[in-house]
Amino acid sequence: MLLIRRFEERTAEMYALGKIGGFCHLYIGEEAVAVGAVDALQPDDYVFSAYRDHGHCLARGSDPKRVMAELFGRATGLCKGKGGSMHLVDAARRFLGGYAIVGGHLPLAAGVAFAVKYRGGGQVVLCFFGEGAVPSGACHETLNLAALWGLPVLFLCENNRYGMGTPVERAVALYSDVAQNAAAYGIEAGRVDGMDVVAVRDAVGKAVEQVRTRQRPYFLEAVTYRFLGHSMADPAHGHYRTKAEVDEAKKRDPLLLLRTRMLSERLATEDDFKRIEQEVAQVVREAVEFADASPVPPVTALEDGVYI
Amino acid sequence: MPTKVTYREALNQALKEEMQRDDRVFLIGEDVAYYQGAFKVSKGFLEEFGSRRVVDTPITELGFTGLAIGAAMGGLRPVVEVMTFNFAILAMDQIVNNAAKIRYMSGGQLSVPIVIRGPGSAAHQLGAQHSQSLEAWFCHVPGLKVVAPATPHDAKGLIKSAIRDENPVIFIEAQLLYPMQGEIGDGDYTIPLGIAEVKRAGTDVTLIAYSKMLLVALEAAEKLAQEGIQAEVVDPRTLRPLDLTTLAASAKKTGKVVIVEEGWPFAGLGAQIAESLYRRVFDYLDGPIVRVTGRDAPMPYARNLEDAAIPDVDQVVAAARQVLYRR
Amino acid sequence: MASRVIMPKLTDSMEEGVVVKWRKAEGERVESGDVLAEIETDKAVMDLEAFASGTLLKILVPEGTTVPSGTLIGVIGESEEDIKDILRGSPPPIPPPSEVEGKGGGAAPSAEALASPRVRTLAREHGIDLKTVKGTGPGGRIVERDLEPFLLKKEQSTVREIPLTQMRKAIVRMTTQSKAPVPHFYVTIDADMAEGLRMVEESKKAATPFPLSINHLLIAASARALKQHPGLNASFAGETIRIFSSIDIGIAVALEDGLIVPVLRDCGSKTLEQIVEAERSLVARARQRDLTPEEYTGATFLISNLGKFDVESFSAVILPPAAAALAVGSVREVPVVRDGKVEVGHRMTLTLSCDHRVIDGAVAAQFLQTFKQALVRARDL
Question: A77 CB near a chain B CB, below 8 Å?
């Protein structure tokens, strides 16, 4: 979690310096969801994400150097500079990608689950998406198919309360309990505090086991909050939400909650946290240095990879 | 011994043989299993392969097309039947944003070996929403391959290559071609994607046509022959990647080119073919390339209007005379 | 403007040529059409003619030198003209396209000839000055066909285009009108011609003014058989089938540059002698092209005999309004078995082309049976 937090803080800085371009959506505030959920997976399970995907990719264990290089648009990036912030992929870690059409990756996740089932494999597909995707046709078509065919996919809805600037209650009819949208398809659903990494890990752990053994989809809503704006162009608190609201949410910063708990339960000391902080700072520094020193992709490679 | 089969049977054979050959290949779409396909291309499949590999879907093109793309990412080789390509519009985001781009966006880490097939173009009096030729939409997208065979032989050989290809392939058939008979090759043959074929050799004018329009062009060539005009008819067969070498060689030889397509004229595929030829063989052309296209309107229902909206033999003959500067 | 003299490509297979001899010297006046040099191709030594008038300003390739086709070998222009650009090998500037649609658009006629890209390329390859070519395309555009006379001169060894004569046009029209829409089928039979040949020989010896030929026997036998099988003396008329009362037999006559089918009227009521006389006169006039249109149209049955060309058998195209055409091969000597002994027999192969819309297979076969019997007993004709 700390790595994701510090990595993204540096990302914002690099964006401001013009080292990173395009759309860049930070995950700060929501780290517990990615970290808790991915921790509950087996190495051969699959993970899909949407466009706010840095956290999921790092949580899955991707090399921060290659993630930062991708954000920099360098040849050494995970996707050789062809993907960018919203399209990180690390196939070796079965992180099958960030997708930037809202709702558009849900059918893909169901499809990988279909392939798993077709071949008699025991893997589970974990699919992250925001509550903004819930009203999309893609989401509903996918929930129906997954329920119909008993596909081993865990739909993990990160409800950070806003689809860009539109609050969930103005976007989703069943907003007070988003998981009810899945219940309509007979999909078992649950809800978890997305700021509590341990709770997320427990909930996802249970859900994943259920998906794996019962070969049925599961829908889990993780209630969370994004501390920064929608993207780099959006201030943390603009016209659609107040500073007071953001400040209130920050009191339940997932890093703070975990630190407090670990200290109180004597699982770690202040020194441990200092040491971890230093280690993370080193990793992030190296990531930025690596990215900055990496070559840009050759223009001659522009059309490489369009076809095999 | 070459045998004579219908276009429908050729596809049925090819798909069956591919599914027998490779367990990863499966067929998914609306009414492909129990109903045996809206146009009976998958006749007998459910009995032979079972519901694991012949998958009926609800009427959700976005959902099942996207799911099949995911299945391809997961190591399978899906063949998606869209009941007609009109309905593929619902899956356009999946096809364009996912199927076509995933390989590129991932820097080559992932690939999507999928075939999306079904009939395109007009049949008879099906009205505007069920009668359109959308191949130009798909051809526009880097990452997709687009195939539109006109004969049973080509259909069989090309669908096999499409299934074995590592890239997403849009495979456009035609309702009016399904009952057409033709000789096909023996056994397990394939025809490589991206190779055009001269369907009739000639020296005076080049007629370029694909899918259903090939038959129109061949008939026009027959008529032209009675006037002493030897038309060369070239079928690109694969629309992307386009076999410009073969098309350009013919255009260079005759210096006169007519392109026949059923789709709409504005930004249609013929415009692209013409531009590609101008770039290659401008100095060998004896005049502007002439396109014979569908009319610039949604497909009308009335039979006479529909007939007028689709290129016919007389229009192709007239276009050939025009490029030959004959009256 | 200076004109380039290039090593032409005179045959399809010609890749290079030798300048055998320059017939004009540098500085010498040349007129368009003058022989500039002798060029040796892969096939022959040929004259290279000038396409422009002026002064041979420069000879770039000495005698005896081989250069690839398309190489600049000399320049013709006005004396004092600056030909540096040409010598540098840069192609002459091509004027911007001044028309697109052919007419309209308000483009003023360019001083430079309008020509299609293909024409410009061909002109460059063949050294043709486009100013000497008249364009017949839209807006006076010079199109490929306008170059044909110029190219023909160059490519006589590979292509020879002969304009269609009126007769050839008629043949094209008649045969394509028939072959495309008329569903042809063919029935073939052999006939014993021993008796017929004897009659022809006797007639020759008798030195009559109108000697008998095989064709006369064929006409008479056809008339006899058509009388018995009127269904073949017929025509397809869209909604009905027309049966003709008069048996009008067309006989294909080969001419030097084509073919004509004079029609012998009312053969059904003619004796063999009358047929001989009428046929002789009709065919003689056909050879002199002295027939009126009525005399070569409207046959109800056709006979085409290629026997004298040693053709064993062939099939003929039916010319409407007839519904059948008889194709006749040569009389061949063949071994035949008679009374247990092998003898020399005389056989002729006959192929009847039928319009299936009018005639069915069995009817055609019955007709041929009757026809064959009539020939075997030629003396009864």
Answer: yes
